[in-house]
Amino acid sequence: MSESKISRDEVAHLAHLSRLSVTESEIDTFAPQLERILEYVAKVGEVAADEIPPMSHNVPMTNVTRPDVITPSLDRDEVLRAAPAAQENRFRVPRILDEEA
């Protein structure tokens, strides 16, 4: 197996960011695979021609919008009273990430 330009630490860091649990063996497997993926993405970038405009869809899209109109909404205090938990005029929900924002 050839030496990958992507380090084991980088693979472990990407796994952490993706919240994936990977083994040492998987790190060794993923490093060259990620290297090849990046090479393929670079090749696609080389093919892109200046005369072809960037697009997100292969067919023309029209954005349908409506005017913003203020309408009555629910009373905040009433909604917060009905919530399972509220704190400082907001809904209180369980923490889902172990990191500080």
Automatic annotation (TrEMBL):
It comes from the Bacteria. Pfam families: GatC. Gene3D superfamilies: Glu-tRNAGln amidotransferase C subunit, N-terminal domain. One of its GO terms (biological process) is translation. Keywords: ATP-binding, Ligase, Nucleotide-binding, Protein biosynthesis, Transferase. Belongs to the GatC family. Allows the formation of correctly charged Asn-tRNA(Asn) or Gln-tRNA(Gln) through the transamidation of misacylated Asp-tRNA(Asn) or Glu-tRNA(Gln) in organisms which lack either or both of asparaginyl-tRNA or glutaminyl-tRNA synthetases. The reaction takes place in the presence of glutamine and ATP through an activated phospho-Asp-tRNA(Asn) or phospho-Glu-tRNA(Gln). HAMAP family: GatC (MF_00122). This is Aspartyl/glutamyl-tRNA(Asn/Gln) amidotransferase subunit C. It comes from Antricoccus suffuscus. The lineage of its organism: Bacteria, Bacillati, Actinomycetota, Actinomycetes, Geodermatophilales.
